Amino acid sequence: MDFDRSILSFLKQPLLDKVLAESSIKVFPKGAEILREEQYVKVLPIVLEGIVKVYSRFNDKELLLYYIQPSQSCVMTFYASLKNTPSKVYASIEEEAKILLVPVRLLPKWLKDFPDLNQLFYDQFNLRYSELLDTIGHLLTDRMDKRLYEHLKNKVEIMNGESIKMSHNQIANELGTVREVVTRVLKKLEIEGKIRQDSGEIKLI
After folding, report:
1. Peptide bond preceding 14: is omega within 30 degrees of 0, i.e. cis?
2. pTM > 0.85
């Protein structure tokens, strides 16, 4: 399956050849769930195209942890695979994604034979740790209107567009709140001239 190999530039030869020879590439449709909580990890995903959403679920509420974009992987999956422990997060496809699925049974040997592979783990850990600190900071200090606006802004940037199409319920799930709160805050942002809503599409102004 064709893809831009520069996406995997962090993998040096001959490790790249081994990874491509032993791994598979699969295209997942938008909305597909590729990892569930308590599921044992058999493959390490590296996103080649598209976007994957990683989140936690508490009772009937979800909380977005981070997005995985092209050339990135999931540090939570990485850890769970190396320790052979069940996943503590969920992952689903935000935008149709082409993903490299690396068998985790090969990781211990590759990490030993190719120390550079450790850098992928360290880089992803640093990135996700910073993002989680930002999320905690927003939860503790920001009012919902600021949290919601920054969330929409971040999402538009990730999607490389000018607007996003999401239901109020979807937004509420990602922010760990309820639909009624999101609807009220979106209306406030619209009155303030920061967004425009039209048939489920939200555009930042």
Report:
1. yes
2. no
